[in-house]
Write a structure and sequence with these properties.
HsdR_RecA-like_helicase_dom_2; seven-stranded mixed sheet; about 1000 residues; single chain; Rossmann fold; 39 helices
Length: about 1000
Amino acid sequence: MNNILSEKEYQHFIMERLEQDNGYVIRKATSYDRLFSIDRELLFKFLNDTQSKTMEALRKIYKDDLEETLVSFINAEATKSRGSLLDILKHGIEISSMKLELMYTKPATTFNKELLANYEKNIFSVMEEIWASDKERVDLIIFLNGLAIMSFELKCNAAGQSYQDAIYQYRMERNPKTRLFLFKAGCLVNFAMDLEEVYMTTKLSGDSTFFLPFNIGNGKGVNAGAGNPTFKDKYSVSYMWEDILTKDTVLGLISKFIFMETKEKEDEFTGKIKKSESIIFPRYHQLDVIRKLLGDVRENRTAQNYLIQHSAGSGKTNSIAWLAHRLTSLHDVDDKIIFDNVVIITDRVVVDRQLQKAIMGMEHKTGLIRVMDDKCNSADLAIALKGNTKIIATTIQKFPYIVDSVAGLKTKRFAVIIDEAHSSTAGKDMAAVTQSLGAGEQDYNDVQDIIADEIARNGKQANVSIFAFTATPKPTTLQLFGLLNTKGQRVAFHVYSMKQAIEEGFILDVLQNYTTYDTFYQINKEIEDDPRCKTSDAKRQIARFVELHETNISQRIEVIVEHFRTSVMTDLGGMAKAMVITASRQSAVKYRQAFEDYITKKGYKDIRALVAFSGKLKLPDDDTTEYTEASMNGFSEEQLTKEFDKDDYQVLLVANKYQTGFDQPKLCAMYVMKKLKGVTAVQTLSRLNRIFPPFEKRTFVLDFVNDYADITAAFAPYYTTTLLSNSVTPTAIYDLEAKIDAYTVLDPDDIEKANDLLYSDNITSKDKQKLTFYFKKAKNLIENYDVTKQQEIVALMRHFVRFYEFLLQVSCFEDIELHKKYNFITYLLSYINIKHPGGGYNLDGKIRVTNFVQKKDEEHKESDLVAQPIMKLPTAESFGLTEAKEERLSQIIAEINSRAGRAYDNDVAVKAMLQIRDILLKSDKLKTSARNNTVKDFEFSYFDDIDDALIEGLSQNQDFFSLLLSNDEIKRQVLGIFTDEIYASLRKA
């Protein structure tokens, strides 16, 4: 029997805190009017106390019917198709040409005493155990001025239940048509809460209701994960009544954060535009970052810049919209407005539209925001910056002009919000950027670098604060915008890590099923080792020849199509899609041609592909045909995202497009034919990480070019935990199986019978009942163990499923009996989860035939992912061969000796390095490059000139220099050691 804490005691504890600490009024459930979802007495107390003259005037008109008339009118305004509770709370109601406010927000300044007095008269109250209908009893309801705004279903872990059971109640036992839960008219938000975690939803829709975590995170900075911290003297969720449910926070949420979002989508069958509405309630990290930024800016005004490191899946667009909106009216401690204008920088027009809608959803003021689209020029931007438009959204191309303009407008103060600098195309937009920044013919791959360089050249402006949002901050970004911590490191002002986003279920772990291939077409060794191929240009030509070879492409296309059809296509209810990352525009065209040839030859009618690349091109072997994206797809480039979203197309082949900033949650698989490095690797692979509720999405990556170690190294700075287990082998799988079998919860006979049903052509209702019996039997056996053992069993089963799926992807492993057990455990885990996260979904949607076994003869490379959570800036070292560099060089030399059967020693290598250094330091070309470029951009010129330096010094050290000339990888390893020092020396020269 539980003597620690009951659910009822927990409920009373919260009410006590609300009353004693937050000034709430505790009301009896009998005061609740379920027909209109109000507390009439408190509604009219608020109206009479704050707007007595208006109420007297209305009473003269409606006399004894005033109360009923007002209640009915308020209900009608909240429930009409274009109305909502949020709208009437924000803007009040107008009846008989008279305005009535239903709440008062906190004034931006202290000047208006009457507004301040009315703000203090808002009435907050709480009721317990109210009957929303004859069958629905709700634990707690929060009221604002008599209007129900929040509902709570509470669970007590000490009593054997959790927030998961509360979620189940909302999904399966609450009617979305009940007045209290009616979308837009009922509660603004519904919370499922236990002693440890909080989840929320703004829209009940039966078993497809989607709940979001509303937890503060467990841990600090980049180490923060999902959940809440543990405290010695209070509950983990105490922030709810200590902060979120305080009067100031609730009124701030309603007036400044919560808004209605309308999305438009074209029906692929009728062509009509369908609109869907949702109430946007901030997640905790969004609320947290906005409040902390505003607090710091209120104190420091325009003195600081800010870096916000928020992972994909963090809701960045809304965070930016909230920040922009709040900064427009932010006053300092002396009640003076801080910013005259807020400028939002992005390179994605679609984000501009989303931002515009989000901001207008918060406050319906004309002229509040202006989007500088492609039709606007620098003169238009100048007018906007000098004018009174509070928020200006503009594209990245105009960024240099903004820097110059705001520097010349010293009397005005600007907040510049930079959305993550994506490079979604390599066409005219990027060309405009490189030209405007005087980069000549240098091809920038990352706009983040361009922004950093531009800001570094111009310096921090005294009248400008920059707020930079990014999921993947580079060292230069940290240097410019990061804050110094107590250890002397530069860190982001606010962090919502990739780890936390994955753990909270907002994004997926894209490295779970990652398979690498050496190549399907063996590079001709004779050509690669030919002594004529001494220049990087010649080697690039050879690599390109292999890349575009028809045999190579046709083999890869076969693997892509067959893998997609057998392992991916049936996911997401048959809506799963894939992206092929090609190395060039020519590759994209040739892969698309090979794709069409292959599916035609095989007679496949269920898979079709689109292609995406910029500009026009002709193939070397066909100079008569001109190819464009539009001509190959049969529609304009602007239509591609809409068309790809339809069921007609499953695969998108891209060349330098849609690798960043492209949000398509149906993407489940990616096939990589292009070398990916650093941030580009993270951004590209992250196209897969979007969730697609209510489906349980899995991701697959087949990589034909990159080493897995390089990919994990790219993710390491932005992810704080190991993504994959140690190398998965059949032995490890059988070890896991043995551990599961030891608990004797799986009956081999049940597994056999269940698989017979799963693989039968037609599963009848009776068959489903039998399956349910098998799963329930196993579930009951699991529940015979104590809670800790139950958790161990479920964890083992989840590891078994994950490891087994991964093993199938990377090997020729085949064990039919083990696969049957895998099938059974997969469905059993779904059954166990019915009353847990994801709970309430019917078993019907999970019954499907699955067989992911795919035999491969190619070699696969596996590697553990080692996370590096702490971001470190590169530190300048004295010019010369330091101990650290000599140690690194000795390791490289040892590796060269091992691989090449040579016997070089460190003295030879050091001598060679110093010779090359002397030659490079005399290069006028490199000197010019160092003075006009960042160190990252300088590397291009540096490595181009190295071959010339090696050839010049060949007579002095022919053996070692010949090795470097013939091997790009070794050359970069050895000579990359001195890039920074040579750059620094030449820049000062």
